[in-house]
Each structure stands twice: as structure tokens, then as C-alpha cells.
Amino acid sequence: xxxxxxxxxxxxxxxxNFVQYFNKLFLxxxxxxxxxxxxxxxxxxxxxxxxxxxxxxxxxxxxxxxxIPEAQFQLGNMYYLPPKHSGLPKDFQKAFALFEQAAxxxxxxxxxxxxxLFYRGEGVEIDRVKSIAWFMIAKTNGSKSAAKHLNExxxxxxxxxxxxVRVASKQIKQKIQQAKSAK
Length: 183
Description:
The protein is mainly alpha-helical.
């Protein structure tokens, strides 16, 4: 029978421990890498984006019901043109209602968007007079885009339309004033 020295046993034990340690380290690294790829693939998936947009939608919906014009405007944008992979439905009528709420509180960009919806008939019947009136109000409140659209619509504005726009603008301004005094 052959006897092994204690150095030989220690060396074999060390090699065995090293192999076990290396195997464990390899498994930890393998799981870490697969976890990172899993997290990255989830973050890039439509499901992750959907969760983010649903959370943002929920936050904006709460603020919009509190009467915050910027939230009403942002939520209106989400309904008008939902972000890709958000799972949110396109709904022009909801967008119109939200833009109108923000517009009557003086939100210039919402006023512009409301004018566009009246012009295109998205979420509301086409109404060129109200469209031009809202563009004029938005321009007065600093919307450069509304000013650009008004220049493009000059050919549609004859004297009869001008009278109708003045009446519509007066009604809209009264509505805005009522909204301001209600606060």
C-alpha cells in the first residue's frame, strides 16, 4: 500500500477546492450575465414601456382631474397620439375635451391644438370659424405655431368669416374669463 504525504493530500485538496470555487464562480457569473440580458431585454420590451406609460398616464390623469392645465394638455397629447408600445388607445374626443379644459385656462399650446382639432374635425365637427378663433387666441398668448397657421389660413378669411370669428372669439374669451374667475 502506498502512503501519500500530507503535502500531496493538501495539494489534491487545494485543487479540489479550487475546482469547486471556480465552478461556483462560473455559475455566479453565468447567472449574472443572463440576469443582465434578461433585464435589458425586459427594459427594451414593449411591456416595460407600457408600464412606464401607464404610470405616467395615471399620474397625469390625477393631476388633470385636479384642474392642472399642463397635465390636461399632456394627457390630451397622450390620447391624441399615444406613444408607441404604450398600450394607450388613440381617442380624439378625449384629447379634444382635455385640450379644451387646458385651453380655457389659458394654455397657449392647448389652444393651438384645439384649433387644429376644429380645423381637421378630429374629436369634434369641423368648424373653421372656431378653428381660426382659437388660433387667434393662441397667437395672442404667444403660440408661434398658431401665428404660422393663421398666415396659411388667410385665404379662407373673408369679411363674413371675420365677423363670425369675432363673435366666436368673444364667446371663447368669455369662457376663458369664467374659468379664471372660477379659480
